[in-house]
């Protein structure tokens, strides 16, 4: 009976070792599948990035002319406005200086408004 128990224990130990090997293989398989999935996902992400980058480059190239022409138009408008402001300055500067001098030089002495009310 001792040999039968010993043999049963031995069979159980062998079965346990075999089960441990199966579990280990399953873990390795799972780890490998995860690595494969990650590498596949990385490849897909890189491909998607390249696609979107090429779309962006095409969009930017098609609209680059619009920004340059808009900038040219804004620059021309700015030059025109600066010219108008300069002309207005030179046309009115003598009148403005004269008005300022009149205000500074012509002083009308008057009593303070509070002083008038008190008397």
From TrEMBL:
Q: Which InterPro entries match?
A: V-ATPase_G (IPR005124)
**Presence of keyword Ion transport:** yes
Residue ranges the record marks as coiled coil: 12-54
GO CC entries = vacuolar proton-transporting V-type ATPase, V1 domain
Q: Which GO terms describe its molecular function?
A: ATP hydrolysis activity; proton-transporting ATPase activity, rotational mechanism
Keywords for the protein's UniProt record, in alphabetical order: Coiled coil, Hydrogen ion transport, Ion transport, Transport
**Record keywords: Coiled coil included?**
yes
Q: Which NCBIfam families match?
A: V_ATP_synt_G (TIGR01147)
| Physiological role | Subunit of the V1 complex of vacuolar(H+)-ATPase (V-ATPase), a multisubunit enzyme composed of a peripheral complex (V1) that hydrolyzes ATP and a membrane integral complex (V0) that translocates protons. V-ATPase is responsible for acidifying and maintaining the pH of intracellular compartments and in some cell types, is targeted to the plasma membrane, where it is responsible for acidifying the extracellular environment.
| Family membership | Belongs to the V-ATPase G subunit family.
Assembly: V-ATPase is a heteromultimeric enzyme made up of two complexes: the ATP-hydrolytic V1 complex and the proton translocation V0 complex.
Tell me the protein's name. Answer: V-type proton ATPase subunit G
Q: Which organism is it from?
A: Postia placenta MAD-698-R-SB12
Print the organism lineage. Eukaryota, Fungi, Dikarya, Basidiomycota, Agaricomycotina
